[in-house]
Amino acid sequence: MKVNLGIVGAGIASRELHLPALRRLTELFKITAVNSRTRRKAEEFAKIAGGDVEVFDSYEEMLNSDVVDAVVLAVPIALNPQMIEAARKANKPVICEKPVAATTKEAIRLLHLPGNTPIYIAENYRHIEVYRKAEILIKEGRLGKPLAFSWLKWVDFGQDNKYVQTKWRQTPQHIGGFISDGGVHDVAALRKILGNVEEVSGFSEKNFDYLGAENSAVFNMTLGSNVIGNYSVVYGAPASLNRFEIVCTEGIVQVDKDEATLEIYSSDREKLFLNKTDGFAEEFTDFHRVLEGQINSLGSVEEAVMDLATIEAGLISAKEKRVVRVDSLLNES
């Protein structure tokens, strides 16, 4: 079954992340329509995409058209819930870029929408091979029981960075700016490998006005699997670093996303070289499987809500100077 897709939002994600992936999946998808904030951007995207791509002046017009079977949302985060809801009302399946919403409270509303057309939250980190292999390694027990983790992430986003230059990111309506925008990626991978986060004790700072919100965070976490750990991130750092380590009873594994390697320290030292993937083609392929009736386990709203709630718990903890249980956000919402 080839699915006709309508692209909503002709910005960086659609042009540089989704389009290359969809060009690898022409047996599964065809881009037939585009809508964006301005007609000029939509027309530019249609030209880049090639083929017979219809430009729509409104999202509602696209949803009510027979030109598309499903829509791809790559819009400002705060707009996600209302646009997902509109797609559900129009009985159009939707794949939407993460985070699912600006806050956990807004995200939870999506769990209770009437109807059953698929809603798929496009979290590509759940599809990246190095993280999937790390999950298998841990769950097979090869290194014994996991005890603790450390994730250090420095991101060299200067004022000229293309994401920083995005207007809606300069005055973010979503919690924590880049801390949630990028942080849900890492939490998705963390949860897939080690399980759900239960409590967060956080610290955060806003060091640079140009990043719009908090740009530095340290989150100390406890997980349901009796694992403890630390996630530390700085946006606007002078250099980049992405170091993720898991300590187990019988060894340590270093997970390197950028190099797609797992370095294992146990009775023997071993380095595994995996395929370098960004996960976008894989997530669209999985979306297609869901459209054909497969259970949505990797792109569900429930998973996206947990990712966002984990980050929000850390940000609340930093503000209120208390330990925050992740499930308290789910109950309050």
Describe the structure.
The chain has helices spanning 12-23, 39-49, 59-63, 80-89, 104-109, 129-139, 167-170, 178-194, 280-291, 301-320, 326-332, and strands at 3-8, 29-35, 54-55, 70-73, 94-97, 119-122, 146-155, 197-205, 216-223, 228-235, 241-248, 251-256, 261-265, 269-273, 324-325. It is 35% helix and 26% strand. It folds into 2 domains: 3-122, 3-Layer(aba) Sandwich (Rossmann fold); 126-280 and 309-332, 2-Layer Sandwich (Dihydrodipicolinate Reductase, domain 2), CATH 3.30.360.10. By secondary structure, it is an alpha/beta fold. Helix 5 (104-109) links the parallel strand 5 (94-97) and strand 6 (119-122). The strands form 2 sheets. A 9-stranded mixed sheet has the order 14-13-12-11-7-10-9-8-15. A 6-stranded parallel sheet has the order 3-2-1-4-5-6, with helices on both faces. Helix 6 runs parallel beside helix 8 (178-194). One of its GO terms (biological process) is NADPH regeneration. Pfam families: GFO_IDH_MocA, GFO_IDH_MocA_C3. This is Putative dehydrogenase.
